[in-house]
Amino acid sequence: MGDPGQEPRPGANEIVLSAADDKQLCNTLQHTKLGCLAEVVATFGELGVKWQRNALWQDSWGRSYPLCSECWDTMRQIAQSRRPGLVITDTRDTATRR
Question: What does pTM read for this prediction?
Answer without folding.
Answer: 0.85
